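User: Predict the complex with zinc ion.
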Amino acid sequence: MKEKENKDKKKIESDLKDHKQFKKELIPPLLQIKGMTSFSWCYERLPELFWAFLIIGNIERGIALNYFRYIAKFVEENPNCSDITISGISKLPVAKLKDFTKYFTSWSDKINILMRPMLLFPKLPGISEWEKVLDKPVIDKDWKNIANGVNKTFWHQSQEATDCRWIKALCRVLSGKMHFPQSMESKVREILEYPNYGDMRKVRPSIRALEMIPNLDEDEDKLNWVNHFWEHSFKSTSCVFVENPEEVIKKRKKEIDVEIKEKGKYYFKEVKDVRIKLIEHFFSTSEISTINSRHEGAFGLALYGISLFLEIICYKLSFSITGRITLRALVETYITLAYLLKKEQDEPKIWDDYRIYGTGQIKLIYLKLKEMEKKASCVKIDKMEDIANEDKWLEFVPINLGHWESANLRKMSEEIGLKETYDKFYNYTSGFIHANWGGIRESVFEKCLNPLHRFHNIPTATNLSFLSNVTDDSLEILNNILECLSIAYPKFTFRINKSDLKD
Ligand SMILES: [Zn+2]
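Assistant: Here is the predicted structure with zinc ion placed in the model:
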């Protein structure tokens, strides 16, 4: 899509603050209007302007618009031909239909060739008349022209789509189907003289709004044609992958090489060195062998953060789904550590609570699996038994069934001023952890590039996902964790320095 169109699209997006909360839903402004339903240009109305998008998509714009004006002239003289959609034309009385189709094909051979692909659709409304005035289609070339037309008009606000929507609106105006009060004279002039009169930034949206007004004469038959158009297009043409898998891998090879090999080597050394320093700091701050929930908790969380980051690096997870799940675990580690540090000022026993809760969870896992007499490859039952009994005999370990702090991560992040970190990463990574549609869509599907397939989703061509890189975010979080550790046990100044290797 063109950059300008992207900007236009952005401008009409509403902000979160414009949404209204209704029960558990945030309702966007358009849906707050009573009776408003969503409508679809490309699904329901675009195929009705088949002839128009074939022309606008395959010939110089000036010529196309002149031709549109030529059609409008016929409508002006024959007001009962106001509906210039494919279905609308087909419903004309036979004599009128003959006249109109003949008129359509009397302007130039160039235009006739562009309209020829309409005959590729066996159920085109009025096909018997169109067959009389158009040449037989040339299969490959003509499917390509249809694809060009759909491609350029698929986005409902593209210039080409607006041009097609203009001819539909113009014919309604010229035939007297739409009336405007005297005071709207200049509005009418904007439509009649499009695109040469008025401020196009305002004219284009008002043309699109006019085009959307439903025609009261329309009936259910319209959808038959629309459905046939998309169905026949789908069956007659193949999916188009973004690139073949080898190309994707070749293209990203440099980025992957830098990330996985060079940066991997760099970060492994950086993190290994910091880990050694952290362990030295652990021993230098250990005072006695009595259980110390705070000391083991704080260092444990920091070491856990380091392990998570190292796994991203060593197991080459930067571009993967697993990388996102690991990033989420890092964020939870960071928020948990920061929360414990903040809360300990009022609740010195909070580190014990955190530990007792975790031990209770291990006890629960141990007892459940023992009862079930089932093995899980990921759980070493003996290890669970050891940990459950580690601090005291497990008969004295309570099991807490809620969250250890009876607060969820969002509330915890709010209390410690880390809501921004939470907002930045939580929902996005949740998509992957909870197998929500967002995560699924991004990681295993891509768009088919055939416009005639309405850019539907198809499985990615590569076996492994190539998502955007999680390394920088993970690094930022890990350094924040180390910062917390330094607050808990001053002073620990070592951080992982960002690699300056370029992707
Ligand atoms: Zn496809």
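Residues 3-32 form one domain.
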